[in-house]
Amino acid sequence: MLKQRYTKVRKMYRIDLNCDAGxxxxxxxxxxxxxxxxxxxxxxIACGYHxxxxxxxxxxxxxxxxxxxxxxxxxxxxxxxxxxRREMQLSLDEIYNLVIYQLxxxxxxxxxxxxxxxxxxxxxxxxxxxxxxxxxSFAIAKAVKSVDKNLIxxxxxxxxxxxxxxxxGLQVAHEVFADRxxxxxxxxxxxxxxNALISDAEEAAxxxxxxxxxxxxxxxxxxxxxxQADTVCIHGDGPDAPTFASTVRRYLQNENIVIAKIxxx
Length: 265
Known about the structure:
This protein has 265 residues and is an alpha/beta fold. It is built from 8 helices and 10 strands. Helix content is 37%, strand content 18%.
């Protein structure tokens, strides 16, 4: 009688690495997209409201295409001076319309260059507001679906925006952050608070490895919080972002975590 052999199958972990990009404007240069794009799989391109302009959008789409990245729209509040990080009091109709307007810019620029818009990730204060405000999150989700029901909606993991996207019938990507710390309720530590940012790439990588492999993140107060991760954000405006991204990616790959666009085999 042949002895039955059992093969232990290693669990496959995979994650999308996204970055916010195209955030220069006119003569103001921000970020190092050309270098950063070598280390990520998805790019969220500013749509001209919080950053970016028609030339920058076109150039960034081209650069993303050359690096075979998934192209996403990164709509925010109309706030160039505050970089979209100041909350604005707008009606739900205004939020719906501003999202559609900005998606139109990136979608058209992509299509002219033979590319397809893949996803949408709100920016800054709009992102944070949608994470906790159900009405705002639905205004955004409905706007995305109105433009293209096949677009993937990126939102803070476990947030109202993710729930709104799922209830609206969109594919949703739960997003976590490499360079941000977390509160005990699973939200990001506000930038106005101490220890909100993680500047050490090795520390950031260890946080993401725990999130991907264990589905948990350690909050700034020490609790382990359950969290889902489909995509990881690396901010393109951070100091030496390309080196940071390269280090994080290397650590993840050393842990046998596959780096790939969402939906890519």
